[in-house]
Each structure stands twice: as C-alpha cells, then as structure tokens.
Spt4/RpoE2 zinc finger domain-containing protein (Planoprotostelium fungivorum), 124 residues
Amino acid sequence: MAERQREREIVDPPTDTKTLRACLYCSLVRTLDQFEREGCLNCDSFLQLKRNKNRVSQCTSASFEGLISMLDPDTSWVGKWQKINGKSMAKGVYAVSVNGRLPRDILNDMPSDVASRYQPRTQS
Ligand SMILES: [Zn+2]
C-alpha cells in the first residue's frame, strides 16, 4: 500500500498550472518550484537545475502542449520516444511538445554524447 501511495504522489499532475514548466531536454513537466528545489528527475546530472533559478529558466519552458502521464517508463511509448542515457525515464507527466531550445552554451557544457542526443521538442 505504501508503494501505491507513493506512486500516486509522483504521477498526480501538479495542480498549480500557472507555474508549470517542461524540461527542454526530456519534456518532463513539473512546477517551477519543483525544478528549483529538485531539478529535473532525468536530466539533473547534466542540466544542474537544482537550486539554480537561472538554469531552470534557461532549460525549462512554460510554453508546452499536451500532457501525458507515464506510469510505466519501460513499456510506455514515451520512454521509447525519448531515452535518457539508455536509462528508464522517471515516472511522471510529460509534455507532447515543448516550445524553446536549450541554449548553445549549455549544450556545449554537456558531455558530448548527451548533447548529441538532444532533440528540440518543438512540434514544427
Ligand atoms: Zn529533463
């Protein structure tokens, strides 16, 4: 039961939609506050958003469309569509498309294999 409870907390979409942002690398959607406190669950090792408001505003976007809950990253199409470092993605809510691009200097700072896998999430 404890496991079930935890899962609900993770997958419930955040309620304050005004502050929702999507990660420009993996399209994970969290509140601004969550990104600032915990960073991105998939990308923080190279985006380093945690406790860095400036990075959060550069690497996440408030402009995105479509929300998908990913409950089972191993079998979900979202997981196949966007693999991060070959590892399963975090359970959570993802945007279908995200407007914006990671800044060049941030891409340059990433390990090259991570940077080369970056695909902007814009729809057009
Ligand atoms: Zn991310």
Observations:
- The chain has seven helices and five strands.
- The helical segments are 2-11, 32-38, 44-47, 53-59, 77-81, 104-109, 112-116.
